[in-house]
Design goal:
alpha/beta, three-stranded antiparallel β-sheet, about 20% strand, Rossmann fold, three-stranded parallel β-sheet, 12 strands, single chain, elongated, about 290 residues
Length: about 290
């Protein structure tokens, strides 16, 4: 009999502000999914882009999750502590001739997909450059638990993409692949807005000989105009004076149909019910859920 896999999930917010309803919606879904599988739920603060970080945001995130009873396992991990691991991954790719220096900027690229202008170009150390990963004509296919079978052609849909920026910060695609490996993540649940990143990450995993997690992309929450709830669209910070009501509302948005009596239950009672009755399949195929009022 095969040994049962230890499920490890994670929530990885950026400390660019306090959590809004859309962030907590994703956090709760991930938490319930992992706990329903008797797994570990980890917390990672994606703070690698220091120019966007907001003072006090990390503490506010931890406070919000704690107030809602979404308690994580193990110590909180911070991306900013992983630069040496990202550098090692870049070196491995470089040694395998899979990356090249690129001096192009968005202003001088007319095409939506990068045309590979710098692939054969000599770029000196003294120049300002990013590192791009070489892609080819392969098709990346994966089964997504929320959206079904996905196929992406790397060269025509993505092209050679950046894994380290000109400002010397590592790009999201490389960082998240390395981070998930370091934390032993087996299940990634996140919003549909990130599904186009997944083929790039699967490609990187294959090049770095890393295991591929199971992916589940949830429908995102959008406002009455169809815009994703985010800090950019000024989504309001969630009022945590009544965490029980916040959880009850989130369960409704996740289409879990919580019984009305649960609205008067405690945080621990609500979560216990939600874990026991978790049904992620009811969201399958949906890409967005509209809020009439945020």
């Amino acid at each position: 009999m095969a040994e049962k896999q230890n499920v490890i999930g994670r929530f990885a917010p950026s400390p660019t502000g306090a959590l809004h309803l859309g962030s907590l919606y994703t956090a709760l879904a991930s938490y319930l999914d992992v706990r329903s599988k008797q797994g570990q739920w980890l917390l990672r603060i994606d703070d690698i882009d220091c120019s966007r970080n907001v003072d006090g945001a990390s503490s506010a995130i931890l406070y919000a999750l704690d107030a809602l009873g979404l308690h994580w396992d193990a110590d909180v991990v911070y991306q900013s502590q992983h630069h040496e691991y990202y550098e090692a991954a870049l070196m491995q790719l470089s040694n395998n001739n899979m990356v090249y220096r690129c001096t192009c900027s968005r202003k001088n690229i007319d095409a939506l997909i990068y045309p590979g202008s710098c692939r054969e170009k000599v770029v000196l150390d003294v120049m300002s450059y990013a590192w791009r990963l070489k892609t080819d004509q392969r098709i990346i296919s994966f089964y997504d638990e929320g959206q079904g079978l996905i196929h992406h052609a790397l060269d025509t849909q993505h092209g050679d993409f950046i894994i380290k920026r000109k400002d010397r910060l590592f790009a999201y695609q490389l960082a998240v692949v390395v981070d998930d490996y370091l934390q032993g993540v087996t299940h990634v649940m996140r919003g549909c807005d990130l599904i186009d990143s997944t083929p790039k990450q699967i490609y990187l995993q294959s090049l770095l000989n890393l295991a591929q997690p199971c992916y589940h992309h949830l429908p995102i929450l959008v406002d009455s105009f169809g815009a994703k709830l985010s800090k950019q669209t000024r989504a309001p910070v969630v009022d945590l004076t009544n965490p029980e009501w916040v959880l009850f509302r989130l369960l409704g948005l996740l289409s879990q149909n919580p019984p009305a009596v649960l609205a008067k239950a405690s945080v621990s009672e609500i979560l216990q019910w939600a874990i026991s009755n978790w049904q992620p399949h009811v969201l399958r195929g949906l890409q967005a859920i509209k809020l009439n009022k945020c």
